[in-house]
Amino acid sequence: MEALSFLEPVSTKGNLANKAYVIIKDAIVNGWITSGHWLMEDEVAKQLCISRTPVREAFRRLQGDGLLEFIPRKGARVPDLSDSELEELLDAREQIEIAFLGRSIENIDLNKLNKYASEFKDLEKKMIGAKDVYENISDLQSQYIMLDRNFHDFIIESSGNRYWLEIYHSLRNIIQFSSFKAGLISSQFEKAIEEHNALIDAIMAKDTLTAKKIMSAHIQNFKKRLLFAIKRNKRPLPTASSNKRSHG
């Protein structure tokens, strides 16, 4: 129950199932409820101060979004995606982002694009200022993930195709909560920001071919960084006895 303590009671006015859905979805996508975490209807209902019925409906919608999975005789949990599943998701994301990049470049709001360029540069300075890879990394990670999400949303939205946007959002949400568990280090963020800066320069120049190449490389590099970080986190920590043997 402590893991859900950040969930606040909802207002009893309006569609309770929809309110529960939005609250739980935000918690999963933003990494507050992590991959592999089990969710029980009664616990969530108690925390939100509503009955189990709207929570059950919210769970079904989240299952449709790919943000919850139901295990027979056990309940619902946030998926812990395999490496191959993440690779497939990122490959699909790459195709969507590249497919409409040309149209996005034609319609792009240059003032907003300049604003993102400034935000990436400011965040890059913070990354460089972090002397230790663990210094403020949680805060920097959250800042980067949110900025990255908003930037890529902005590019897709600029295409003007709402159906592609819906497909992209469904993929992006699943990828995002997996990013939080990876624990990328500051040098990896810095590299990603360099890629964003190069992409922004190409978009500013209306160079669609170069922008598509950079976008493709950016997503493929992110896939490599993400999978490497997840594998690194799965490695067992060395024990005192193993350290003794390795130095023996």
Q: How would you explain this protein's 3D organization?
A:
By secondary structure, this protein is mainly α. The chain has 2 domains: 11-77, Arc Repressor Mutant, subunit A (Orthogonal Bundle); 83-233, GntR ligand-binding domain-like (Four Helix Bundle (Hemerythrin (Met), subunit A), Up-down Bundle). The protein has helices at 16-29, 41-48, 52-65, 83-99, 101-107, 110-129, 137-157, 162-182, 186-204, 208-234, 240-246, and strands at residues 38-39, 69-71, 75-77. A 3-stranded antiparallel beta sheet has the order 1-3-2. Strand 2 (69-71) and strand 3 form a beta hairpin.
Shape: globular
Main beta-sheet annotation = 3 strands, antiparallel
Helical fraction: over 70%
Q: Work out the count of structural domains.
A: 2
CATH class bucket of the largest domain = Mainly Alpha
End-to-end separation in angstroms reads: 46 Å
Radius of gyration, rounded?
20 Å
Order the strands across the largest sheet as they lie in space.
1-3-2
The count of strands amounts to 3
The mean pLDDT is 84
The name of the CATH superfamily of the largest domain reads GntR ligand-binding domain-like
Q: Which class best fits the helix and strand makeup?
A: mainly alpha
In the CATH hierarchy, the architecture of the largest domain is: Up-down Bundle
Portion of residues in beta strands equals under 5%
